Amino acid sequence: LFAQRAEFLKGVVAMDGLPPGDRLEICFAGRSNVGKSTLINALTGRKALARASNTPGRTQEINYFTLDPIYLVDLPGYGFAKAPVAVVAKWQALLKQYLAGRANLRRAFLLIDGRHGIKDVDEEIMALLGTAAVPFQVVLTKTDKPKPADLEAALAATRRKLAKYAAAYPELILTSSETGAGLDTLRATIAAMVSD
Ligand code: GTP
Ligand code: MG
């Protein structure tokens, strides 16, 4: 699957702009700045496919990428963002509509910063995914940053919090887009979903 070249398809600003749901899709969700866009670039081996930046609130549209035969979807972040309040409110509403209402969404990868663990805003999204019956799998990002002991603690705390969400996959994937750690595991996980 990942031997192919991923391409940008479109940026979507309203539910009626979503492409036809005729292929399986997976999305990357998480707080602003957690590393969603960077992870898509790292997974696809394309440095600037999805635009990333150090400013939280970089991705403001639902960005679709084709990786035949599926779509990869880069979402705007939730939580704090450096953007006008009205703009943030608009994309957060869209994000929730998308997560709860996209029939061909097979799995949401929920990105959690390996330094910070699960926050209340993440739990709100997990509850929403549970209500919508969208399976989700947690990906810890930026695992190159914390000290090993701090990463272990964040991992244990994340496992405890996840236990109460029926829609959550029990396996966590630890990644670093910086060192490449965990990327093969994540690619294999996605490839396995496509071939079932
Ligand atoms: P929004 O679109 O604003 O919601 O953010 P995002 O989740 O798409 O984050 P983005 O990919 O733009 O990355 C945010 C910042 O984190 C950038 O400065 C990245 O270089 C950095 N970053 C992302 N992944 C990693 C990682 O694995 N390790 C390290 N050290 N930095 C990372
Ligand atoms: Mg982004």
TrEMBL record:
Gene3D superfamilies attached to this UniProt entry:
P-loop containing nucleotide triphosphate hydrolases
Cofactor(s) the protein needs = Mg(2+)
Q: Which InterPro entries match?
A: G_ENGB_dom, GTP-bd, GTP-bd_ribosome_bio_YsxC, P-loop_NTPase, Small_GTP-bd
Q: Where is the signal peptide?
A: none
Q: Give this protein's Gene Ontology molecular function annotations.
A: GTP binding; metal ion binding
Q: Which GO terms describe its cellular component?
A: cytosol
Give the superkingdom in one word. Bacteria
| CDD domains reported for this sequence | YihA_EngB
Ranges for the EngB-type G domain? 22-196
Biological processes, Gene Ontology terms: division septum assembly
By its UniProt entry, which Pfam families does this protein fall under? Answer: MMR_HSR1
Keyword terms of this UniProt record: Cell cycle, Cell division, GTP-binding, Magnesium, Metal-binding, Nucleotide-binding, Septation
User: Which family, according to UniProt?
Assistant: Belongs to the TRAFAC class TrmE-Era-EngA-EngB-Septin-like GTPase superfamily. EngB GTPase family.
State its role.
Necessary for normal cell division and for the maintenance of normal septation.
Provide the protein name.
Probable GTP-binding protein EngB
